[in-house]
Amino acid sequence: PFSTGEVLKNLNKFYKRKEIQRLGTENGLDARLFHQAFISFRKYIMESSSVSADLHIILNDICCGAGKVCLLGHVDDLFPFFLRHAKQIFPMLDCMDDLRKISDLRLPPNWYPDARAIQRKIIFHAGPTNSGKTYHAIQRFLSAKSGIYCGPLKLLAHEIFQKSNDADVPCDLVTGEERVYASEDARQALHIACTIEMCSTNTPYEVAVIDEIQMIRDPARGWAWTRALLGLCAEEIHVCGEAAAIDLVTELMYTTGEEVEVRNYKRLTPLTVLDYALESLDNLRPGDCIVCFSKNDIYSLSRQIEARGLECAVIYGSLPPGTKLEQAKKFNDPNDPCKILVATDAIGMGLNLCIRRIIFNSIVKPTVNEKGEKEIDSITTSQALQIAGRAGRYGSSFKQGEVTTMHHDDLMQLKEILNEPVRPVKAAGLHPTPEQIEMFAYHLPDATLSNLIDIFVSLSQVDGLYFVCNIDDFKFLADMIQHIPLNLRSRYVFCTAPLNRKEPFVCTTLLKFARQFSRNEPLTFDWLCRHTKWPLAAPKNIKELVHLEAVHDVFDLYLWLSYRFMDMFPDAVLVRDIQKKLDHIIQVGVCNITKLIRASQSVAAPGTAEVVSEDFPLSRTKRDPRAVSDHRGAKSMEALSIAVDVPPERRAKNLKTYRSATRQEDLKSHGRGSLANRLLREGLLTQEMLRQLESEWQDQHRNGRYGLGSGRDDQNNSKETGRKKK
């Protein structure tokens, strides 16, 4: 037997030797894999009841010879055993060269031989929102013998589909969930309007239009724009978007041997940044649009607006497309009493709105960075221009647009953001294809799909013009359905399904879809109705409205899968019919949204975190006549929010953030309000903890740590400006 202490000391010495690390790199073990392999190797030696005889002898020789002039053994002698163990836990080490070749993403243009076989003409229509750039590209699309329009949203694809057919140019609509033919006999038209993920790189066209090209940098969807730009087989490619993407598109086309013609456009109507903030909802005028970055803010503001006797329309991202269009129509109708719009940045694309003035309720927004981490950060110049540009749309009743903020504190920072140059787009997104993953699986038959993706990304090599898109959503779904027996191609398709993983009902439904699919049992209309409890009634509160939105997403998911597995999801027509009925039910709920909010607050049930009262922390306290959230309140609330998307383990940390972001009076007020009550009900706070919080706050106040003097306030305000906060 050998001394475990001596063995551990020598193993750690082995791990730290530069020669061993170099040998590991030569055998395919990068720093991360080397570390993981060593941890496993050390555990195997230290915890195994017995190790192989040859390894036991080597370890004894090393331990017995340590410190002597003539060594019996050296720690380097462990390397063959270490490498053998590493290959057992990382099978890809035996075929590393092949895997590196498969995951080599340095020449994406070569993936599209049909596009490389022709000389394409690239025309970049560059300009801000409301400059007519897309209009000119669409005119060329309509005049061509054949064409394809690729947009980021179903709403945009539907708009071009409608315009084209209205202009007597037969055009089909293709989205992830449906295909609508222009002709009654379902014969394919020569023109197609589609969402960008659905474009074909094999069909030849005379003209192709790629809209919103700056989204090529999107961490999740950028790969679709890269694929369209490099792979569309069209004589003319008309690219529309921000001028910030010109340099990248030019460089990408240089690698394909194609030149880029740039056509610059200026805004068609003037846009003015006002020198004053709104300050109070009493100052709202017809044609105003308040832009929020939180559904909570939308609920709160819509109720406060209607309490003033004004009607308002509501638009946010999770609403069905039909409901968004209906709300937009209501707001645009000059004969409708609804003259105010409360919306998220979902209005930035896809909706034609008659807006006189854009009012930013906040200039901070929750975002997801390249690593998939949530951050709260000031909106970018690109985002601010996209949203502000919706005011004063050309051809609307307002000949010029205005933009301001809800609060004076934010106005100066908004002006700075709008005056900054838009950051140039530096890289284009890529995503592993099903064929690449299948080749990986051939070499690594025992690896899970999630592991295959991890290995692919870790080994992938990309040119400086590209990056690998965030695959967290893909991996989440891969892990969720891993236990279900599916072939690799079907598993891959299920993992690319477009759903929000924060919606438990939708995720559960996908799991049930996959399980029944694996048993070769068709997902029928009756089964779906039982699962969703259809027919559904109009919502009575916000919680029920949110559930109806989730059911709409489930119907979308069914239709998306029916497009790929027609035999297993056979009732697409019936599902589309009830989805239209559900859309109408949701429209009724949104039209009565303030009633739903009041009903939700009267019930005050645990778990209805989306419901916001007027004294909710997102809003200013009753001492402030503005009674709406400022950007600091939004920051603290986003951090604190006891909402469905905040894991329980983060709530204690969030409470600390909230405590440091509010004043003593706020804490006392909230101690009597709904927040404290809900925390007490959910077991996240006790009466003793609440008393301790008040006591600590009073001590800090007495010590001057959070003094209320105007000098300290001014200093805090100046520090707050431009601050980035995760």
UniProtKB/TrEMBL annotation:
Keywords: ATP-binding, Helicase, Hydrolase, Mitochondrion, Nucleotide-binding, Transit peptide. GO terms for cellular component: mitochondrial degradosome. InterPro entries: DEXQc_SUV3, Helicase_C-like, P-loop_NTPase, RNA-DNA_Helicase, SUV3_C, Suv3_C_1, Suv3_DEXQc, Suv3_N. It comes from the Eukaryota. It is found in: Mitochondrion. CDD domains: DEXQc_Suv3 (cd17913), SF2_C_suv3 (cd18805). Residues 273-438 form the Helicase C-terminal domain. Residues 711-726 have a biased composition (Basic and acidic residues). SMART domains: HELICc (SM00490). It is an enzyme of class 3 (hydrolase). Signal peptide: none annotated. Residues 695-726 are annotated as: Disordered. It catalyses: ATP + H2O = ADP + phosphate + H(+). It holds the Pfam family DEXQc_Suv3. Its EC number is 3.6.4.13. The keyword Hydrolase applies. Its cofactor is Mg(2+); Mn(2+). GO terms for biological process: mitochondrial RNA 3'-end processing. Its main location: mitochondrion. GO terms for molecular function: ATP binding; hydrolase activity; RNA helicase activity. Belongs to the helicase family. This is ATP-dependent RNA helicase SUPV3L1, mitochondrial. The gene is Supv3l1.
